[in-house]
Task: inverse folding
């Protein structure tokens, strides 16, 4: 693990080109670019989590080694993506790290690692609507992009929503089994699933429309 030292963060406008460059270099296999992304974002993440989390979770998040591991896991196992500015990148990163801290279930983390290993995506999502072209992709590319959007949207959902979707859609459990796993009634598990589907659809729309 590299020795990460806190760095001061400049304005989002000043950082936009550098963040985009680091993301592109990382997608090209440059591990140094990934390390630099982590090093740059630790101070911002620590401040964001200090503002949003309770004392118990905050104590865990305050450790730089935890934050480094969390960011490395996110950037290693989520689909590749490019954003138009540093502010959007940081908000997305902070939301996923916060979800990981709040998460009481490891269903999605386990599935995400397995899926990334079995079905690596060569698609890079462009989450800046202004930079998209009007080219028509192939059907195979469209399927790959849809899978990438779905995986990223799942990472942005709250832990309880993500858990019920993974148990139903990926582990193919019945609602009675899901209820038992989550310690709720069967009907409550069914209602949670329907609500989570709606939230997932909303997150997918937000990603497709572009982050700013």
Result:
């Amino acid at each position: 693990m590299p020795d990460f030292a806190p760095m001061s963060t400049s304005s989002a406008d000043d950082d936009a080109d550098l963040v985009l460059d680091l993301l592109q270099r990382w997608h090209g296999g440059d591990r140094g670019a990934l390390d630099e992304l982590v090093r740059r974002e630790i101070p911002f993440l620590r401040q964001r989590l200090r503002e949003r989390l309770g004392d118990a979770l905050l104590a865990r998040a305050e450790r730089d080694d935890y934050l480094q591991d969390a960011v490395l896991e996110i950037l290693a196992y989520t689909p590749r993506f490019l954003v138009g500015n540093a502010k959007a990148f940081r908000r997305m990163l902070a939301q996923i790290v916060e979800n990981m801290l709040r998460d009481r279930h490891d269903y999605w983390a386990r599935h995400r690692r397995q899926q990334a290993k079995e079905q690596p995506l060569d698609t890079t999502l462009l989450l800046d609507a202004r930079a998209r072209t009007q080219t028509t992709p192939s059907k195979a590319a469209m399927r790959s992009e849809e899978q990438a959007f779905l995986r990223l949207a799942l990472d942005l959902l709250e832990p309880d929503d993500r858990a019920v979707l993974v148990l139903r859609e990926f582990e193919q459990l019945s609602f009675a089994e899901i209820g038992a796993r989550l310690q709720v009634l069967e009907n409550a598990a069914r209602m949670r699933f329907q609500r989570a589907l709606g939230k997932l659809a909303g997150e997918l729309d937000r990603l497709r429309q572009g982050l700013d």
